[in-house]
Amino acid sequence: MMPGSPSCEFQDRLTAFLPKMKVWAMALTRNRAAAEDLVQDVAMKALAASESFVPGTNFSAWVHRIMTNHFISGMRSRCECSDLDQMPEVGIPATQHDRSELRELTVAFQRLPREQKEALRMIGIEEQSYEQAAGVTGCAVGTLKSRVHRARLNLRSLIHGEISAAA
Question: For site-directed labelling of 144, which of 90, 101, 112, 118 has its Cα 20 to 30 A away?
Answer without folding.
Answer: 101
